[in-house]
Amino acid sequence: MAVTTDSVALNEWVPCGWLGQVPLGGQMDTVIFGQKISITRSDDDCYRVETLPEDGSSGRQLPVQTRYCCIFTTLGEAKRPLPEIAEFDEPDRRVTGCGSVGVNTSPYRLVENFLDMAHFSFIHTDILGAPDRTEVLAYKTEHRKDVDEIWAIDCTFYQPAASKASATGQMTQYVYRVMSPFSVMLYKNVHCDPTRNDAICVFIQPKGETECLAYMPMAIVDENSSTADLIDFQQSIFLQDRVILENQRPALLPLDPTYELPTRADASSIAYRRWLKAMNIKFGIYEKQAA
């Protein structure tokens, strides 16, 4: 697996492990953008990330941030900070890392799947969607240039079981937020308190162009469900998605708007692809071959 030379991708923060995944005084090796790296955790609970060159020479120490239950690093020079997600700092929330799932596809396919409400009724039947209520109502997308993020607002969809805590169906209000090419989250109204939103994230570790780990931390309002039940609910949803994601072709993401024709329900995907194209990212992007 070759290390990418795409500076746009290399300059982004990406996760490389969970907090606590490496034991005190221990080490774990993994891969980002084709580059082998090591993560060490000192006895005083500090993390160090270094590259592992193939020739066995000394590696390069990389920047490290630990937030949202994850360890983040970058192989380049980060042009944007890690996003601020205030919900993770609210003391009454359940902040939980729901595990990481390996998926053999482009990281951008993962982001688009997370943004896609149209598949709820068909893939997550009787949980996030109902077979007789499939319409995706019109919503708005915004490029918030002050933070360089893509937002989808005024999203509404009927869900039979919107969360582990839900006992009945509801019209769920969503706000989607794409924070970088490799990170996306949603704000979803809390079933028992309409003044608050749950915050659910997907941070993607691109091991290669079509090999990823998806990390799922969340900060939710739920006093009753066990941590195991919360994790099981999120994992079961994501594992249903993985089957679809790994069968999409091409696995790389086309940015040519004529290659995969969108519908009205794909407004967030359209905005995301335009954003990726404008930043001239090449890693994980499908380039149509000349005849």
Automatic annotation (TrEMBL):
Residues 104-279 form the Vanillate O-demethylase oxygenase-like C-terminal catalytic domain. InterPro entries: Cholesterol_7-desaturase, VanA_C_cat. Keywords: Dioxygenase, Oxidoreductase. GO terms for molecular function: dioxygenase activity. It comes from the Bacteria. This is Aromatic ring-hydroxylating dioxygenase subunit alpha. It comes from Pseudaminobacter soli (ex Zhang et al. 2022).
